[in-house]
Input
Amino acid sequence: MNQNHPQLPELFKGIALFTPGGDLIYCIDPNKQGRWHLDLCAGLQEMLGLSEPPHFLVPCYTATIDKWLDPRRQKLRISAEAYPLVMRHQALLNAVFGIDNLVWQLAPWQEGLCDSIVLGTYREQFPQLWEENDLVVRFERNGLINYFQHKNDGSHLLPPESQGYVLRLFVSNYSVATERILQNLYNLLEESLNCPYTLKVIDVFKHPEQAEADQVSATPTLVKVWPKPIKRIVGEIEDMNKILRLLLPPDV
Output
């Protein structure tokens, strides 16, 4: 996730694009400009090293949210739609877009448009899209993408120090408590950090090898991987002051 704004704007359009493996790249646009779907496809191409932008993911793996002001009643309105293949990610969508307990509506779609057989024909060309990396990435139109990627050989691709923070949140399954922790973390990181960051959520049941590599024996655990030294918080993720002490240098 790339942090360039201290907090989410009150009015904005947000677009989320998922991969079949569950990775997420999304944008938050206060100006509500067009063509974001193409930008997110290009972002996935750069992030995962694809041969071309995966346009076939649109609209099957997308969700859109619009926060707007009703001119008649002068009240804030929210319209949120997601396609069937990403409806299971509602809790994560609420966390990244700063919305509490929003129930997303099913976006209108044509029967057969996202046929699993048709989508499966792309798997050989884009195998990276079916991998489960648990990436959550905020994309900025200037092309800056900051992310953490787990390499197939078990090692990790760490960004240079100038790219900001790399954080990993280890959880046991995805629950209401996980959503609350994510929401608090996103709010804190957006308001407190003045540099890009990446937050990767890792389910220890799906990726036990990652938990072992990071010496995680209990959940939830927040690990600051970069910048070094590596630090961690176990079981007290809702203590925002403790998280700030983990992230910021002592003299800040």
